[in-house]
Structures are given as structure tokens and as C-alpha cells.
Specification:
The complex is a heterodimer of chains A (about 170) and B (about 600). Chain A has about 170 residues and is of the alpha+beta class. Chain A has two domains: about 60 residues; about 80 residues, Glutaredoxin. Helix content of chain A is about 45%, strand content about 10%. In chain A, α1 runs antiparallel to α2. Chain B has 24 helices and 17 strands. Classes of the chains: A alpha+beta (about 170), B alpha/beta (about 600). Chains A and B meet through α2, α4 and α5 of A and α1, β9, β13 and α17 of B.
């Protein structure tokens, strides 16, 4: 969910990413009520970095003239923002009601056991991170899990274990 | 001789995930192969609502609806239907008789039988990325009528007369809200569309925007004209990339056609729109929290009054309505309040969109007139409960709503009768629950959600939900104490009365309604240490049945060596040693371990 862009071209260097954040800020500063675009700036930052690095939040504070404490407050308030780098593959387990009544809790438990991590953590090898998702809107396929931006539906504990193993196998190639 | 065909592929999220795009590629290749490319148009539409039958393809003329397709079906459809002109009965979804105008377009599928599509009138019919498609179905005619033939006061009066109530869940009369905002003097004023759909298990707003984004743009422009605002903002969840893309394109196209911008259609009225993204906070669906979020701050609510219509975004008068409310506006202006009032019940006019999901045969998006009964929705539109299971409850209103048991199935749906039954209309999530679900566990699930999403500003919600959750967790773990039910009720009522915003005021609803309607289940958990749905792990006993082949897998996996048995002999669990971890149940390949 977090990293959707910048897949095809060569990865950007940190300087290039920062330049893009700065460019975006310069653009929003020309609008009315520039402070109100803070969340948009954080979205752009997460798109580029995959998470919100502390140094970049400091930069944003400087460029936008907003206290770092306020930015930190906003970044920690919203679930969508990550404060640590995510794993190579992000697993989002849908915990919407439709998925829940069709067994999402067992799916989540299976993944936790299989990866030996808790929700919000990254595996030791950095391959997976696990996060809960509110409704993904694919209720017809419940229960569903989204890995990166691909949705896998009608899962059972067995199927989800197989799925994780597939990703592991691919990573080992 | 081949005719000219127009093919529509449903491009809603569920269909996308079941392979609609690959299907389109195969379809185009097949058309090419048969030399039909020039004679056939293929377009993608928004969600048709039959989400469990995806991917769906509609062939026009003839309105044949094909569902549950695989790539392999495409060559057959092209050869038989398009080349030879013979629709394929095997793949078509057709069951019942024609019923209303929607049927002229989508054939006689029973799924649409009790539906009346007003706000979703274009979903699945037009290409949502084409403004021309929208214009061809009387699109922007309501806006033209408003700015040329009506005064702003007349528009407000029309909306007020229609009896439209807020579709976000609370049901506040929309016309009253408009009147208050219009009465404020000075500029700027703001118009906001609340598309921060956060209920787990609800996808109405997303499908509406994905399927027909121009309706929202038109509705908001009319709202801007009526209350004297020139700036509209759509606040939408960042988790909905497709909806964001489509509404962005709709705004750009409307601007290019002079339907947004300066002096719209030659009038004095100017109006433009922008998009702001949410970032995953349920409380931002509350209007004052939403305003704080647009202002770039933490999305926390504040006490009202002053209401946003007096003091809203950047301290200015602001009109906030939900996606579905906005989608009703062009219809009311174009067809008139008198027509709109003919649909629905005494106190609730018009239709309501529901996201029907859970243990029901037809999962999907439906729109029914107010006053339709829950039974009609679940059994006629939804096709009943799959697998011959017994109905247990229907949950409406998401984490703010309640669970209604069988005796309420004949309740006609409107704001007031649902409230009387102990639930709420809510934004439109409708989850069917069968005998396999434990009501205490369901209540705990919703409370976990609201507890997690509580912003922490006011104490009753922050601390109260936490305490309630502790009691519920205790009950599901078999450690419930006598008096726990009374404690939950007392706490729940206190939180309802003392919380600052709608989130806290409604958070206890799932617990209170399940206590009211399923008290026996709570008592069983507390006194008999029993969970009749066999969901609560600690209250379940595992037993090995005669299906056991004696493979020994469970014996090896048991962490406390509670399982005994020799090769090829039925194993036995020592109940005194068993810690109910469930490992044996998960490991057994022969379904020989039963929960009792």
C-alpha cells in the first residue's frame, strides 16, 4: 500500500527523494492555507521513502515552518503513516467485519505464527511486514489478505501458509 | 452477418481482483482475431454490485449479463454470441421476471428484483472515466437547471422539501443543514464531501465514486450554488486509489467542459473543487474531526455548537455531506422533490445503498427503497444464508450499530424503525451473521475496533471502551464473573451519554444490542463456561473422533503431551492436561478432531 511508485526506473537516491519532497512543498506553499497541506506532504514523503524518516520530518518542519512536534503528532495519529521502514513485502490482513465473520482472526494468527512476528513488526530477514487493514472492500472474496498491492481472497490457514512460502521461494531465487 | 456490439466489463474492485483486466485483454485479442475490433466497443464500468459473481461482462444490445467468467469462456462468448448471434444461456445470470427500469438494462437477474437504483443509477451503465457517457444520461442537466432557472433559495427549498436525510448514518435532515449554511453571510464558504468511509465491511461510497464520479461533482456544484460557496473539497481515504483517480479525472474533465471554474454555464456562479486525502483514522468520519484533518492537524473532534455550518473549515461556514447524500442531489433537482417523496416511508424518503456481506449468498452492493424489510434484503436480494446454516443476526451500522435477531427481520428499514429496534441505519454496512458466529465475540470485535480508533481526547470514550473491552475479553476467555453483564450495561450507557463525538456515543451499541438480544449467550459464557458457536478458544473442548487414522501428527504437535495413542489406532486427548491451544485441530489432515 505504501510503496506503489518508483518500481520501473532505477531507484532514486536519498538526495533525489528529498529534492522531490522539497519541490512538492514549494508547490503547496503557493496555495491558500499552506499548513493544511501537511498531510499531503507526508503522503508524498511516504510514497518516496516507504515510511516517514525522522530526518525528513525535520526537513519538512523547516521548509513549511511547522514545529517538528506538531508533525510528529500528526504522523503518529494516522494509521496510514509508517515510522519505520516496512519489509520487502507488506502483508495487510483485512479485519473488516465480512472477513472477520468468515475467519480473518485465524488467518491473522496463522500468519503471526508462520512469520513469528506481531502486527506492526518486520520479520528478522526484512522480507515481510505485517499490518492490519480496515475493510479492503473486497468483501465478496472474504477473507482476504493483501500482499503489496495484490489481493488474495477466499483464504484458509493452509492457503495463506502456502502463499507465504511462495513469496519466500521467490526471494531465495 | 455480425451486428455492432457494445461490451461493458465491470471494473469494480472485486471484479478487478477476480481478473477483470486479464479478461479484457483476452477479449480484445479475440475480437481482433475475428475482425470485430472496429464493430465492437469495449468499455470498463463501475461496480455492478454483484461482487461474488465477478468478473462480469455485459453484452449490448440485448443486455446479456455474463458472470463468474474465466478467460476460457471468452472465445466462446465471442464466437457464439458476437459472431453467430446466440447468447450463451449457461453463462448468463438470468432468473426472474422484469421488475423496474434497471432491468431494461441488466436483464432479469433476481438480484436486482427488489432494488431501485437512484444514486447508483449510472453505476455499471456508463464508463466512469467518460464525461460524454455521463452527459448522455442527463448528466449536469440538474446543475444547468439550478444555475439558470432557479435561485439558490429555491434549490435549498427543494432539497428541504424532498425530505432527504444525511446518508452518513445519523440521518440529520439535509435541507436544514443547507439552510443554516446558506443563512451565513460573507465569503468564503466551503462545501465538503465526506468520503472517509471507515466502517469495516462497508464499501458503498467507494463503489459509488468508482462507478459514477460525476454525480458527486455535479451534486457538490449544486450545493455550492445553493449555499453561496465557490470551493468544494472531497475528503477521501488514501486506501482507495482507484476512486481517487476517477474523481480527480472527473473534476479535470468537468473543468475542461466549463462545468467547474469561473462563470459556470454563463452564469455568475463560480465553483471549483480539490481532493484531500485521509490517512486512515476512523474518527475522521466525524465532521469536526474531518475538518481538523483537512486543516493538516490530528483528526480530533471538538464540541458542537458551533456547528460547521456556522464555523467550519478555517473558521468559515461549511456544508458537509456524505457521498451518497451528494449523489441524491442531482436527482432531486432534476426530477423534483415531489417525485423523490414518493419513494420511501413517512419519515425517511428515497433509497438507501447497502454493502451486503458476511454469511449471505449474494455479497454485494445494493440500493433499495426505504421501507424494504431486512428479510427482503437478506433472502430475496441476498439469496439467503449459504450452506444450509441458520440465520442468527444481522448487523447494521458497523461499529456504531447493533445486531438484530430473527424477530426483527420484518422491520421496514428506515432511520426511525431501526433505531427503535436497537440498531442504527449507519452508513450502509450490512453484515449477515449465522450460527457459526459467537455474539460475544462479535461484540468484542467491534469494541476492539472502536477502542483502537478512539482518538483519546475525551475520557469516557478513551477509558470507558478500554474497560468494557477488558470485561468482554475476560468473558470470552472463560473468566467472566457474575455481575459482568450489569457492569457492561452501566458503563455502556455512561459512555453513550458522556462522550464528545459520535464515535464514543455509539461505541457501546454493538455490546448493548447483543446483550439485549442475545443475553443467554453472555450468561452461558459466564456461568456455564460454554460458547455455543465454538468460537471462543478457551471455552472449547477438543475431542478425537472415529475419523482418526492414528497417524500421530497431533500427538507430536501437542505441547503438553496430552494426546495418547498407538499407530493406526484412534488417539485420545487427556482433558485434564489439555491447554486448549488448538494445535492438534490445525494439524490434523483428516478432520478427525472436533470442537465440542
Amino acid at each position: 500500500m505504501a510503496t506503489q511508485t518508483q518500481e520501473l526506473t532505477a531507484p532514486l537516491t536519498d538526495e533525489q527523494k528529498l529534492a522531490q519532497v522539497r519541490e512538492f512543498i514549494a508547490e503547496v506553499m503557493t496555495h491558500e492555507h499552506p499548513d493544511s497541506y501537511l498531510i499531503a506532504v507526508l503522503h508524498r514523503t511516504q510514497e518516496l521513502y516507504g515510511y516517514l524518516p525522522t530526518e525528513v520530518m525535520d526537513e519538512i518542519a523547516q521548509e513549511m515552518g511547522i514545529p517538528t512536534a506538531h508533525i510528529w503528532g500528526v504522523a503518529t495519529f494516522y494509521h496510514y503513516f509508517n515510522l519505520a521502514p516496512p519489509g520487502k513485502h507488506v502483508i495487510s490482513v483485512c479485519l473488516g467485519t465480512a472477513c472477520y465473520v468468515r475467519g480473518a482472526a485465524q488467518i491473522l494468527q496463522t500468519i503471526k505464527d508462520e512469520l513469528k512476528i506481531d502486527v506492526g513488526d518486520v520479520t528478522e530477514d526484512g522480507l515481510f511486514s505485517l499490518q492490519p487493514a480496515r475493510c479492503l472492500g473486497a468483501c465478496g472474496l472474504a477473507p482476504v489478505v493483501m500482499i503489496d498491492d495484490k489481493i488474495h481472497g477466499e483464504l484458509t490457514p493452509k492457503k495463506v501458509t502456502q502463499l507465504i512460502n511462495q513469496y519466500r521461494k521467490q526471494a531465495n531465487k | 452477418m455480425t451486428a455492432t456490439y457494445r461490451i461493458i466489463v465491470c471494473d469494480g474492485t472485486s471484479c478487478l481482483n477476480s481478473g477483470a483486466r486479464t479478461l479484457t485483454t483476452v477479449l480484445k485479442a479475440q475480437l481482433d482475431k475475428h475482425g470485430l475490433t472496429d464493430k465492437t466497443t469495449v468499455s470498463l464500468s463501475g461496480c455492478l454490485g454483484m461482487c461474488d459473481k465477478g468478473p462480469i461482462v455485459v453484452v449490448n444490445p440485448g443486455y446479456t449479463l455474463y458472470g463468474s467468467l474465466t478467460e476460457g469462456d471468452i472465445p466462446e462468448i465471442v464466437e457464439e454470441h458476437l459472431v453467430k448471434g446466440k447468447p450463451i444461456a449457461r453463462l448468463a445470470i438470468q432468473e426472474d421476471h422484469l421488475y423496474n427500469r434497471f432491468f431494461r438494462v441488466f436483464g432479469d437477474a433476481k438480484f436486482f428484483g427488489h432494488q431501485m437504483r437512484v444514486t447508483l443509477r449510472n453505476c455499471g451503465i456508463i464508463d466512469p472515466e467518460s464525461i460524454d457517457d455521463y452527459l448522455s444520461l442527463r448528466g449536469y442537466e440538474a446543475l444547468a437547471k439550478a444555475v439558470t432557472d432557479m435561485t439558490p433559495q429555491q434549490v435549498v427549498a427543494e432539497v428541504e422539501k424532498s425530505g432527504l436525510r444525511g446518508r452518513g448514518g445519523a440521518g440529520f435532515p439535509t435541507g436544514t443543514k443547507w439552510k443554516f449554511t446558506a443563512a451565513q453571510v460573507g465569503t468564503p464558504k466551503y462545501v465538503i464531501c465526506n468520503a472517509d468511509e471507515g466502517d469495516p465491511g462497508a464499501f458503498m461510497d467507494r463503489s459509488a465514486i468508482e462507478g459514477d464520479p460525476h454525480t458527486i461533482v455535479e451534486g457538490m456544484a449544486i450545493g455550492g450554488y445553493a449555499v453561496g460557496s465557490s470551493k468544494g473539497i472531497v475528503y477521501i481515504r488514501a486506501e482507495y486509489p482507484l476512486a481517487i483517480r476517477r474523481i480527480t479525472k472527473a473534476i479535470e474533465d468537468a473543468r475542461a467542459h466549463g462545468l467547474l471554474g469561473e462563470n459556470i454555464l454563463g452564469s455568475d456562479f463560480s465553483f471549483d473543487m480539490e481532493i484531500r486525502l485521509g490517512a486512515g483514522a476512523f474518527v475522521c468520519g466525524e465532521e469536526t474531526a474531518l475538518i481538523h484533518s483537512i486543516e493538516g492537524a490530528r483528526g480530533m473532534p471538538r464540541p458542537r455548537p458551533p456547528y460547521p455550518s456556522v464555523q467550519g473549515l478555517f473558521g468559515r461556514p461549511t456544508l458537509i455531506n456524505n457521498v451518497e447524500t451528494w449523489a441524491n442531489v442531482p436527482v432531486i433537482v432534476l426530477d423534483g422533490a415531489n417525485w423523490f417523496r414518493t419513494v420511501g416511508t413517512e419519515t425517511s424518503k428515497g433509497t438507501k445503498v447497502f454493502a451486503l456481506a458476511g454469511k449471505v449468498v449474494n455479497t454485494g452492493l445494493i440500493e433499495v427503497p426505504m421501507g424494504t424489510t431486512l428479510r427482503q434484503i437478506i433472502y430475496d436480494v441476498g439469496g439467503g444464508i449459504p450452506g444450509g446454516k441458520a440465520f442468527k443476526a444481522v448487523q447494521t451500522g458497523g461499529p456504531s450499530g447493533g445486531c438484530l435477531p430473527e424477530q426483527y427481520l420484518d422491520t421496514p428499514i428506515d432511520y426511525d424503525s431501526l433505531a427503535k429496534a436497537g440498531s442504527i441505519m449507519g452508513s450502509g454496512g450490512m453484515i449477515v451473521i449465522d450460527e457459526d458466529s459467537c455474539m460475544v465475540d462479535i461484540a468484542k470485535f467491534f469494541l476492539e475496533f472502536t477502542q483502537n480508533e478512539s482518538c483519546g481526547k475525551c475520557t469516557p470514550c478513551r477509558e470507558g471502551t478500554k474497560r468494557m473491552l477488558e470485561i468482554l475479553t475476560r468473558i470470552t476467555e472463560g473468566k467472566g464473573q457474575a455481575g459482568d453483564i450489569d457492569k457492561l450495561e452501566r458503563l455502556g450507557k455512561m459512555i453513550q451519554k458522556a462522550s464528545l463525538c459520535g464515535l464514543g456515543q455509539s461505541a457501546p451499541n454493538p455490546v448493548l444490542s447483543t446483550i439485549k438480544n442475545f443475553r443467554a449467550e453472555y450468561e452461558e459464557h459466564i456461568h456455564d463456561k460454554r460458547c455455543r458457536a465454538r468460537v471462543c478458544e478457551n471455552l472449547v473442548t477438543y475431542e478425537i473422533t472415529e475419523k482418526c487414522v492414528g497417524c500421530g501428527a497431533c500427538r507430536k504437535v501437542c505441547p503438553v503431551t496430552a494426546i495418547a495413542g498407538g499407530p493406526k489406532k484412534q488417539h485420545v486427548i487427556d482433558q485434564d492436561k489439555c491447554i486448549k491451544c488448538g494445535q492438534c485441530f490445525k494439524t490434523c489432515k483428516f478432520e478427525a478432531i472436533a470442537k465440542v
